[in-house]
Amino acid sequence: MVPTITAFEKSPDRGRGQARDMRVRWALEEVGQPYDVRLVSFAAMKEPAHRALQPFGQIPTYEEGDLTLFDSGAIVLHIAERHAGLLPQDANARARAVMWMFAAVTTMEWVIVERETAIFQESDEPWHKQRLAVVEDRIRGRLRDLSVRLGNAEWLDGTFSAGDLLMVMVLRRLNRSTMLDEVPNLLAYVARGEARPAFKRAFADQLAVFTAASAG
User: Fold this and answer.
1) What is d(CA 21, CA 205) in angstroms, rounded to the nearest whole number?
2) Is the distance from CB of 3 to CB of 21 less than 8 angstroms?
3) Mean per-residue pLDDT of the chain
């Protein structure tokens, strides 16, 4: 059965591949699973029909038969467990890959999102600059720790996994800053993720939606 995911009808990231449906698209492309996309407007996201799928009125959602999921991390984990290619066969290596998935969407992402909040929602506050400096220091600390752990390795724990997929997507949220330039091995790590054919296919699909929306 072909799953259906939801995505922004008009993405606020203006085609940069930052919306969280990109994570799900990439995962599906990695495992070779065809999928359909249902585009949702901002107004429709808050309507009861969509909230029945995603109680917080966000995207993406995932529907496959009688299964409905929300939250991009949970959806990627489901895809990785159902299909070969994103989780190792060895039980210990598999557990470590899942560990890195959680580290990406909790330990790393929350501080990066906090920076976005400071920039886009708090820029008029008198304490904005001081708060932004504190948040960016936190991010730099996380990046240093991750950089040390990655070292000269290609991926976080041997072969590419769902942990790398989510970590690359989280780090890409810093693309509009220069913070990744300060940690060359992480910059190269993200570039390796973006060079994967499955990422390129997923990005092209998401960009096509934005291009069509802009033309309309």
Assistant:
1) 11
2) no
3) 91
